[in-house]
Amino acid sequence: MRHVISVLVQDHPRVLNRITGLFARRGFNLESLAVGTTHIPGLSRICLVVSGDDHTLEQVEKQLNRLIEVLKVTDHAEPHVERELCLVKVHVAGVEERLAVKDIQEAFRARVVDVAQRSLILELTGDSKKVDSFIEALRPYGILEVMRTGAVAMSRGERTLKVREKKEAV
Amino acid sequence: MKGAEALLKALEREGVEVIFGHPGGAIMPTYDALYDSPIRHILVRHEQGGVHAATAYARASGKVGVVMATSGPGALNLVTGLADAMMDSTPVVAITGNVPRALIGTDAFQEADVTGVTMPITKHNYLVQDVNEIPRVVKEAFHIAATGRPGPVLIDIPKDVQLEEFTGSFDVVLDLPGYKPTLMGHPKQIERALDALEKAERPILMVGGGAQHAHAELLAFAEKTGLPVITTLMGLGAFPGNHPLWLGMPGMHGTVAANRAIHHADVILAIGLRFDDRVTGKVSRFAPHAHTIIHVDIDPAEIGKVVRTHIPIVGDSRLVLKELLKGAKPLRLAAWWRELEEWRTRYPLRFKPKPHLQSQEVIRAFHEATGGHAIVTTGVGQHQMFAAQFFPVTRPRSFLTSGGLGTMGVGLPFAIGAKIARPEELVLDFDGDGSFQMTLQELATVVKYKLDVKIVILNNGYLGMVRQWQDLFHAKRYSEVYLADSNPDFARLAEAYGIRGIKVERKEDLRKGVEAVLNADGPVVAEFKVYHEEGVFPMIPAGGAAEDMIIEHPAEREEVEA
């Protein structure tokens, strides 16, 4: 089963290594990883997409919590917003193709961010499934390259990833 | 004040009395500062010896063990020992020099990415980039190493940071928002645990290394309830090995009584252990009748990792036992004890006497001669299991062995660390001819510091445990396990170091040999030439269950219905 996990960390050097190293060492399956700073200086937030059964997920959370620089781990089982950003460079040979790609762009509410003689870069934001479908729709026209950020997520409503919440650790 | 002096001052403030180590280029500024420091330094002959000695020092004393090494090769020689300390949850702080900051990442002389290499085998590690951070890093390192589930922490300090002028303060406040170990068990869960035990018909109490510091509370709780007690390899000594409630060690080479008790138990109270595969065998067949497993551990990640847990209690074993004791009542276990007693009397640990000198009788003779009053260290292999079986220790922190990692060669450096931690104790290293040769260079350390340790080499001329597996599971194809053709004369080797060497080859010389070792003034290396075809039994083959227990060698097999 697919799980989206948010992790709040102190942004010390190598903290990302500690997390990816943990996944490699324990044999956890990591589908995507996105990381960025937060509004609080010194804290970064990581979003992990992990697949595994309940036992594995319990271990993922517990093992993450053992890391000294991890402040909070949340498995987004509750209603949450999930987004991924994707850039696709697609080959457009002539006017007809350009128009067809434009149709797809409009249907997905993507944006054109670069126009060249024989290619376009499209930018799309959405959940991972939407991004998958977008790429599939463009595939027949000749995709030149794709870059996806991996999912980022946030709980709906007032729930937040609290910093000072007591965490069980060792 | 230079960074190096600040480092030593910070160590002093943590109460460090001894550092085990070996100097080299990138740690020289710190060794220079050490010249004027009140901290005692033990110069080992290989960094691995240093980290193992620091580990044993920590286990024997309950304090944090400290080891120091230079960059690159020096630091990398700590790797096995750090992994060993990690697996057996031992508080160790390792300090390593590194190349100057400007050279990091350039493949400089004696450079290695030590924080990268040790990341998975330390509880935490640091690369110090700012000299004024030294007091904070040292304080955090000792706190992290010693609290919660103990473990090794490494501090890597570039040479130029050691040389830089320190202008910071030593008054630092711990600020680790992501590290808050849970110490007190949840009262509701403790209540549930007591309730489950009260209703149980066949309950058992299993304890591991995480209960070594809780020995007094453990004894009181066991005696109050009358629960049978099983101690894992790491838990030996946490409960007295001569107590009527003690059933012995569980698992691969555990006693019949302990393994059967687990097999038939309906409620298991497990404290400070992690259900290692050498304890459980095949997990799906482990404790098949246990409807309730209560697991007390300070590390939440251990709960539910291997076995299903019905009542999880996250907390410090000593504090949880204190709470359990408050509500403990004498349990009505007469029927259960009748069964246990029968298994215990019918299947004591034993061995078939042979005309040759046997490892088991050597260890037993030492146990009898000392009344079990010693700190025992071991290498890894058959002799280790024989020591666990035939030298039941009665006090905590007195059986020092490599449990989780199974590191051959720890016996001698462990003996050194133990002797330095508790100089008044008799320290006995039961070692194998294979294990001993992995770290024997530390005989020089024994000489240098006049450490009165007794090294007993049970020389069977083979890598005995591997040989035993080849015998049982590889059709007696003894691939690369024969050592006798090239072993040194251990007694003469000892003499070359200026240590008294003793050799015992015949059964009839056993008593005399044991006395000679124990009466010797100063260190001894005693070689006992033992029977090479001996096997460690009982044995549950890897991946097996209590029902698969082999009580004696198949040639003399007596199967046991579980």
What does this structure look like?
The complex is a heterodimer of chains A (170) and B (562). Chain A contains four helices and nine strands, in the order βαββαββαββαββ. Chain A is an alpha+beta fold and 170 residues long. In chain A, strands 5, 6, 7, 8 and 9 form a five-stranded antiparallel beta sheet that branches. A four-stranded antiparallel beta sheet of chain A has the order 2-3-1-4, with helices on one face. Chain A has helices at 15-26, 54-66, 95-108, 128-138, and strands spanning 2-10, 29-37, 43-51, 70-75, 80-91, 111-115, 119-126, 143-148, 152-155. The longest helix of chain A is centred in the middle third of the chain and has 14 residues, at 95-108. Chain A is elongated, with a radius of gyration of 19 Å. Helices cover 29% and strands 40% of the residues of chain A. Helices cover 35% and strands 15% of the residues of chain B. In chain B, helix 9 crosses helix 13. With 562 residues, chain B is α/β, with parallel strands linked by helices. Chain B starts with a helix and ends in a 33-residue tail after the last strand. Chain A binds chain B through residues 9-10, 13-14, 17-18, 21-22, 25, 55, 58-59, 62-63, 65-71, 163-164, 166-170, and chain B through 115-116, 119-120, 123-124, 127, 144, 148-149, 176-182, 298-301, 304-305, 314.
Characteristic terms for this protein:
heterodimer; A: 170 residues; alpha+beta; five-stranded antiparallel sheet; 4 helices; 29% helix; elongated; disordered C terminus; B: 562 residues; alpha/beta; six-stranded parallel sheet; 22 helices; globular; acetolactate synthase activity (chain B)
How would the blueprint of this fold be written?
The complex is a heterodimer of chains A (170) and B (562).
Chain A: E1 2-10, H1 15-26, E2 29-37, E3 43-51, H2 54-66, E4 70-75, E5 80-91, H3 95-108, E6 111-115, E7 119-126, H4 128-138, E8 143-148, E9 152-155
Antiparallel strand pairs in A: 1-3, 1-4, 2-3, 5-7, 5-8, 5-9, 6-7
Chain B: H1 3-13, E1 18-21, H2 28-34, E2 40-43, H3 47-61, E3 65-69, H4 73-76, H5 79-87, E4 92-98, H6 114-118, E5 124-127, H7 134-146, E6 152-158, H8 159-163, H9 187-199, E7 203-207, H10 215-225, E8 229-231, E9 246-248, H11 256-264, E10 267-271, H12 277-280, E11 292-297, E12 311-314, H13 317-327, H14 334-346, H15 359-370, E13 375-378, H16 382-390, E14 399-400, H17 411-421, E15 427-432, H18 433-436, H19 443-448, E16 453-459, H20 464-473, H21 490-496, E17 500-504, H22 510-519, E18 524-529
Parallel strand pairs in B: 1-2, 1-3, 3-4, 4-6, 5-6, 7-8, 7-10, 8-9, 10-11, 11-12, 13-14, 13-15, 15-16, 16-18, 17-18
Helix pairs in contact in B: 1-2, 1-7, 3-5, 3-17, 9-13, 10-13, 11-14, 15-16, 15-22
